[in-house]
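Dear all,

This email documents one entry for the complex benchmark we are building for the journal club exercise. For each entry we list the sequence lines for every component of the assembly. Then comes the predicted three-dimensional structure of the complex as a token string, followed by one or two observations. Please use this as the template for your own entries, and keep the labels exactly as they appear.
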Amino acid sequence: MTDATPLKPHERLAAALRDDMDAVNALIRTRMASEHAPRIPEVTAHLVEAGGKRVRPLLTVACARMCGYAGADHVKLAATVEFIHTATLLHDDVVDESRQRRGRPTANLLWDNQSSVLVGDYLFARSFQLMVETGSLRVLDILSGAAATIAEGEVLQLTAARNLATTEDTYLRVVRGKTAALFEAAARVGGVVAGVDAAQEDALTRFGDALGVSFQIVDDWLDYGGAGDGIGKNLGDDFREGKLTLPVIRALARGDATERAFWRDALEKGKSEDLDRARAILARHGTLEETRQEALAWRDRARAALAELPPNDLREMLGDLADYVVARAE
Amino acid sequence: MTDATPLKPHERLAAALRDDMDAVNALIRTRMASEHAPRIPEVTAHLVEAGGKRVRPLLTVACARMCGYAGADHVKLAATVEFIHTATLLHDDVVDESRQRRGRPTANLLWDNQSSVLVGDYLFARSFQLMVETGSLRVLDILSGAAATIAEGEVLQLTAARNLATTEDTYLRVVRGKTAALFEAAARVGGVVAGVDAAQEDALTRFGDALGVSFQIVDDWLDYGGAGDGIGKNLGDDFREGKLTLPVIRALARGDATERAFWRDALEKGKSEDLDRARAILARHGTLEETRQEALAWRDRARAALAELPPNDLREMLGDLADYVVARAE
């Protein structure tokens, strides 16, 4: 890293919270161990050490410190959040039959589906053990609720795929399950452990939710090439998997019979060769631009919620993080 | 049911605790619902309503009442235990690629692996929400620990399969993960919610563990036809799946080079056509009879632990249950 490369917001947060994040990473390594089943730390390390950005545990640690927390339980909660995230990634890759994650072969490919399912279960159980150690029933309530919302959202995504009748309401619920529920819980428990009042807890909840929703909407926008440069990661994955995301749901509502037939063939029947035509239809109805605007609106909500929290350097960095999440769409 | 058909011990327990078990079943139905993802109650109902014996929730309710509990939280804990059990069944059937469970097609066959993985995750999360409602961190600690032991045991079973070097120590760990950990936790939390002292909690823990171990050892014995009538359910499943169970581990240790070659071909390489030869080898070394004796010894431990608990009708029925579990091997 030279002076010429300015740090990104999550990197600045990680630098400002280095001691905390070192403790989180050490705890993750300790708790992913299993004396008797070496397969468990092998599979977990493959994913945990693949260089993820640790955004969720950073949120927990940053929110706790922003709210003046001086204890050590936020480290346990941050590790908890990363374990839940890792467990869902392991299970998602089995569900989606994915072959790549973070630029490396997935665990289900390197080992097998069985290991991914069972190691995910182990991490989920370990995350609850960690939570119990904090002695906070409030925290347990929040994170077990988030885990239920995540699983429900994933099931909803599974049953909504290839279904042209999917509504924007269902879409938002899937978005919350995939991404926003854990962002929200991560931010909120940081405040709870710091002993914030109800108003601040509510602000943290809205901040985490809005940050997660904007993040996921940008992802869905990029899947269709976003503004049109065509360099979005995994361009067309959602299209091929028949996922009903916001730009498609809105274009469907406005399309004529020919377009509806196109979407039916592509999404319901899986004849998804013509991504260019899909992108042209979305562009014609302006729904890619609307989707971008939605992401920006959720970013604004995240920033508005932050404004109700204690003003300090960490708050500023969290605001920059909200900008950074949607910068891919600006 | 006529007078001529005496009730089995678990049926007598269910009859004696009918109001409690009705409440448990009602709570299970309420909590397995999902307003937005109907796939969740569909999959859960398929399994939950397939007529399982509800042994684990019965244990929780019976242990709580045996210890004098007069409140209502044992119902939540019993539903929790059944949800954890159901979640592990859903995931096990994916891991084992099973096609039948409780005489019906498995969920992974009727729907798909994705639904089984995600609905299992949902039930697991819901089970933790239920536990949190009891407000007992002790209970959360016990059940999250059990969940970790279960997942670890399943991973261990996966990596120990087809490995002739598997030890009796590993075997017992797998048995605890598959069966005894949840039996133990189910019995123990019944006592915890009833406010028993440390000595009684320890007795409940030993009772649940020994009951579960004896249950699983009998299962493993029956898989090779037990005493030789050959009517054990799923006769030879473990043999074909290359599982190293107690009778095989002991026969391997005493076999000559020819026998070791047979086991290597059958268990490591999957050439498991000759179940009769396997059974003959086990019989020659007497390891089926030893396995049966092990199950009876664990039954005796379960009964010895029970003797330390309050003497009443429920205790007597739990003792009968311990006998019943191994009666298949007597």
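Observations: Chain B has a mean pLDDT of 93. DSSP finds 16 helices and two strands in chain B.
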